[in-house]
Input
Amino acid sequence: TVFAITSGLACGVVAAAAYRRSGTLSVSSLKSLFKGSRALGSGRCAHWVTRCSDLKKQLTFLEEVFGMRVIRHEENSEPCGITCNGRYNNAWSKTMVGYDTEDKRYCLEVTFNYGIYSYTPGTCLLNFAVAVPDVGATASKAKQLGYEVSNSADHQPGVSITGPDGYRYHLICPASEPYFAGRAERFLHVTQRVADLQASLKFYTATLGMTDVTTEYPVQQMKTGAKYGVLCYADGIEQPALVLVEDGVKPVIESFEGRHAISMPEATLRQVYATLQTGAKELIVHELQELNEVLGVLCIFIMKDLDGMELCIVSSETFDKAVLAAADWKGPDFQLRRKFLDERAPKGKRGLSS
Output
């Protein structure tokens, strides 16, 4: 089905020009700033694909610490043809987790590969910044569940939690930052390490049409003097930003890093794909496909940025309708998963994972 195929979806593209402005702005004033900056239509950050070695543990963490919910879950008997589950030749599952349906809000796609019991973190994906009403209470809950809490968040002051499989979450209370006042989206930004900040900013703005909001976005001063830039899409104040950090450490991409996912209008998608074919074909990971689905034609391709982070580009006209129709708020059947796991696991691995 379309839902199995689109599990890694994708970083969007618009032809908006970079727009910078100094000063602290509210949500309403930033919306006014972005109004009219779209040339072909906005991209929309949809989700980030993560890996998971123990699904029950991961879902418990996200639900009890952050109050997220399972939006939908699916089991796949064959590996994804466009490597949504990574480069693993096995059965896998994906679970969409967040605060609202995927056509409205950002979420995490938690992918589980049967028979894979651990993942090695790379150095490219740093953290997910999440809005919480009470930083202290959220940190306390994480500690109760046995997770590490730190008073720094990848070069930034603040509280962070290291969750299952090593993913880090930066806690931010919107009440303490006027920029986020009135914002409904609780995923604030994703922090990613880059080798060359200026080259990456140019790539995301000129090639992918994102807007540079470095002077507006409230990133606290980097403790180590690392350089950073902040990007989002037009009308992106209600969707997560992408914080790029250059700190002298080489970005290493592992399966752990996953993919960044955004939907965008088909016309925009085709323009970006044509641009890559002409001038940067080496950045295309999986070529453009047109999939005739019940709810329309889904266009999709996989690319990577200058550091190798994968981006899955998908047409919003069909994707947004498909994910809304798929939302049933039902989680996995852990009894069936336990049986499936133990029937196939080596003797020493039975009873592990979930």
The radius of gyration is 19 Å. The mean pLDDT is 86. The first strand starts at residue 44 and ends at 52. The first helix runs from residue 2 to 5.
